[in-house]
Specification:
Layout (H helix, E strand, L loop, with lengths): L1 H14 L18 E2 L11 E2 L5 E6 L6 E4 L8 E2 L1 E2 L4 E5 L7 E9 L2 E3 L6 E4 L2 E8 L16 E9 L4 E9 L13 E5 L8 H4 L3 H10 L7 E5 L17 H18 L9 E6 L1 H12 L6 E5 L6 H6 L1 H6 L2 E7 H4 L10 H10 L4 E6 L6 H11 L6
Parallel strand pairs: 14-15, 14-16, 16-17, 17-18, 18-19
Antiparallel strand pairs: 1-2, 2-3, 3-7, 4-5, 4-8, 6-7, 8-9, 8-11, 10-11, 12-13, 13-15
């Protein structure tokens, strides 16, 4: 029963990634469209206006039907209209939420990416991406500040009999003083994504650079690896077995990072967090291994209940901070999974003596703007 409820909650969470609610009499669409910041060099479309509407233009003169599949806005998608010149064009029915969204084209029944924009790994494939300018985009803006590095590593994995990939963010100045050691955050992506998501879609490195430059957080490493979540289909997530990934993380990746980077290799300086399915992985692993991580972040990925603390009493003893976050529109959904109401659960474990922080991203749903903001708020709270 719990597994079926979990699948239902996941489906509802992904389906809840909708655009801003439209009024009965929306204002006219402003004709101030500009190319998206994620467009390929020299490409004029797609375009975004100041209200958050998106306009698409696709050259497909022999096509019979072109539709933009954009589950994160435009009420499920946008049908394009063919002009006399063979160019298909259309504008979303409504504005999209601020931040990043995946989309792709359906052309005569086939699935294609938009040649005008960059691609990002999501939905278990490389998808087109669109960015709606946000009022708080300064938190992940590319600024004239010292920048850290994001580097790829290949670490040996005996359990999977292969080398696995991870990306490691090292803060500005890392390595100049070989005696200086750093805390580490292990940060997980969601279902359908991979280890590139947090730096490409989430701008985790820029968020950290800006926080560090502003003196709002201490420097720490971020390790991002593939959570093996895509090895089951979305409708079959009840069959997902976390054991293989837990082995990779605890027995192979963490020892590799501690051996090859300047880390403070103890639980007090180690955190784990993740978005959506990555949050559920974080929840499962940290409850089962309470002596490994002292800071836990669940970003749209469930919550910790009193029942969890009863089953894992050492979690409360060892965890210095539990950070739980959701988009405001996710909390509007009455079905929140087998773990119950996340806000009520967090309040209950707080009253029981666990240090927590519950963050709500305004006017967003199950989407990257919620998680970018969550990382921005969570990072200064880590490793206190």
């Amino acid at each position: 029963m719990k597994k079926s409820r979990l699948i239902l909650s996941l489906l509802l969470a992904f389906a809840s990634t909708l655009a801003s609610a439209q009024s009965e009499n929306p204002p006219p669409v402003k004709e101030d469209f500009k190319p998206s910041v994620l467009n390929q060099p020299g490409k004029e479309y797609p375009q975004v206006n100041s209200q958050g509407y998106v306009r698409f233009r696709i050259e497909a003169p022999d096509a019979q039907k072109v539709h933009v599949s954009l589950g994160l806005g435009g009420r499920g998608g946008t049908a394009l209209t063919k002009g006399a010149d063979g160019i298909w064009e259309g504008t979303t029915e409504g504005p999209l939420d601020e931040g990043f969204h995946y989309y792709h084209l359906n052309v005569d029944g086939g699935t294609f990416n938009d040649p005008g924009t960059l691609n990002f790994y999501g939905s278990v494939r490389w998808e087109s991406g669109i960015e709606i300018p946000a009022a708080d985009q300064d938190i992940y803006a590319l600024k004239d500040v010292p920048h850290g590095k994001v580097e790829q590593i290949l670490f040996p994995s005996k359990s999977t009999q292969t080398s696995r990939r991870a990306f490691v963010y090292t803060p500005p100045g890392y390595g100049k003083d070989r005696s200086k050691k750093y805390p580490v955050l292990y940060l997980q992506h969601g279902w359908g994504e991979d280890e590139t998501a947090w730096s490409n879609q989430g701008h985790a490195n820029l968020i950290m650079d800006n926080l560090i430059a502003a003196g709002k957080t201490q420097p720490f490493l971020i390790v991002m690896t593939y959570g093996m979540t895509n090895e089951v289909k979305f409708g079959q997530l009840s069959s997902f077995d976390i054991t293989p990934f837990q082995t990779v993380l605890l027995d192979e990746l963490i020892p590799y990072v501690d051996a090859n980077y300047l880390t403070q290799a103890d639980p007090a300086h180690r955190a784990m967090a993740g978005l959506s399915m990555g949050g559920m992985e974080t929840r499962t692993i940290t409850l089962a291994n309470p002596g490994v991580f002292s800071y836990v972040g669940l970003l749209s990925g469930g919550s910790i209940s009193m029942e969890d603390l009863e089953k894992s009493p050492d979690f409360k003893k060892n965890v210095k901070l539990l950070f739980v976050s959701y988009g405001s529109r996710e909390l509007d959904n009455p079905r929140r999974g087998p773990w119950g109401d996340p806000k009520e659960n967090t309040a209950a474990v707080t009253a029981a003596g666990l240090k927590t922080h519950f963050y709500v991203s305004p006017n967003t749903a199950h989407e990257f703007q919620s998680w970018r903001r969550s990382l921005y708020v969570m990072a200064p709270m880590l490793f206190k």
